[in-house]
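To the wet lab folks,

You asked to see what we're planning to order before we commit. Fair enough. Below is the target structure as tokens, and below that is the sequence we designed to fit it. If anything looks off to you, flag it before the synthesis order goes out.
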């Protein structure tokens, strides 16, 4: 599912950069594939919140905060830093000479520093939001610490209340520098993360009506399709980069939460496996999904001259095919040469550190007994 989300992001960016507006309905649908970000956020909410949901019901304990943050940094930063460095050094329009651009992008602060979402890296606004979620997740868990044991039944209602309250984020008159919008900050996207967090709570809760309806693949797919269809209308804002009205922003966020919840619910609440999503090809795309997301805009910038196509000049199908194929190739290399070696190196370091911490008390105890 993460692989499909990554490909959805590619589709919406290719549609935008090829100016695929006609027919109008197709253009709106392709543009609204930006809701793939909602699916990314919901997946993160589900996977990262699940240990906390289980611990609240006496089923295991989450990993320590520092170990959790190290795991997230290992997953995100190595490939990201390589991509940022290469794009800022070699992509002609990436404004790589600006120290502010380098600092903001390497530090994932693009949504707070004006004019630092640069060519080849504009998609990273969502990664900035995601990393903000990683950082605050342990503190969200701390806020829920009293809702454990019998009180765990209140966890989902509290989450839903917070998600509903966050829909007013677009209405708040928050002062920002020019070229910065608070619409791109974490509080506005809590419903998307919350959709996955609610699913994590349901997975470790006693089965009930929500589990029965949520595991029904046909019903959930229909609801997801309706939510996506509504989001492709004026209800969720204008096409392109025009700023939505606050009410449109709220509707888009709400529809994205519904869509991502209903797409994921059958996978985590139902039984058995999904034939397509469990296929070797789909699993491979999922494995490389982060690389596809990180590299695809840099690849897209190369595809235009490679195919002799000018930006915003049409040829959606040709540009999409070239971008998808090359992005998968680059992502697979990124996974093999950067992501996986970094993960193994950190795991080896942790293993040596844990082994040393275990061996030291044992040696001290043996010396004490010998004396």
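Sequence we intend to order:
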């Amino acid at each position: 599912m993460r692989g499909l989300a990554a490909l959805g992001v590619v589709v919406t960016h290719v549609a935008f950069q090829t100016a695929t507006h006609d027919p109008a309905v197709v253009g709106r649908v392709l543009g609204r594939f930006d809701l793939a970000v909602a699916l990314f956020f919901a997946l993160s909410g589900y996977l990262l919140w699940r240990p906390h949901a289980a611990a609240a019901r006496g089923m295991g304990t989450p990993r320590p905060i520092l170990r959790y943050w190290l795991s997230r940094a290992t997953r995100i930063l190595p490939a990201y830093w390589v991509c940022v460095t290469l794009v800022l050094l070699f992509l002609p329009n990436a404004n790589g000479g600006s120290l502010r651009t380098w600092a903001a992008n390497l530090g994932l602060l693009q949504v707070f520093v004006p004019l630092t979402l640069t060519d080849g890296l504009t998609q990273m606004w969502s990664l900035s939001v995601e990393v903000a979620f990683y950082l605050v997740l342990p503190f969200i868990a701390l806020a829920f610490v009293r809702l454990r044991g019998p009180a765990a039944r209140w966890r989902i209602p509290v989450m839903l209340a917070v998600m509903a309250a966050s829909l007013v984020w677009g209405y708040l008159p928050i002062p920002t520098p020019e070229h910065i919008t608070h619409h791109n900050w974490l509080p506005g996207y809590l419903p998307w993360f919350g959709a996955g967090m609610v699913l994590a709570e349901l997975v470790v809760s006693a089965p009930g009506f929500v589990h029965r309806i949520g595991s029904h693949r046909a019903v959930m797919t229909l609801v997801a399709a309706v939510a996506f269809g509504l989001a492709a209308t004026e209800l969720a804002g204008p096409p392109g980069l025009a700023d939505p009205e606050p009410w449109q922003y709220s509707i888009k966020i709400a529809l994205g939460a519904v869509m991502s919840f209903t797409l994921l619910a059958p996978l985590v609440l139902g039984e058995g496996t999904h034939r397509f999503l469990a296929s070797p090809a789909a699993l491979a795309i999922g494995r490389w999904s982060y690389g596809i997301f990180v590299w695809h805009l840099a690849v897209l910038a190369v595809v235009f001259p490679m195919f002799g196509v000018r930006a915003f000049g049409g040829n959606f199908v040709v540009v999409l095919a070239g971008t998808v194929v090359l992005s998968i190739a680059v992502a697979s290399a990124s996974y093999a040469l950067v992501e996986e070696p970094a993960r193994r190196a950190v795991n080896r370091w942790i293993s040596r550190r844990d082994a040393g911490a275990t061996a030291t008390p044992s040696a001290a105890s043996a010396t004490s007994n010998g004396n």
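Structural context that might help your review: Residues 316-370 form the longest helix (55 residues). The chain is about 65% helix and 0% strand.

Thanks,
Computational group
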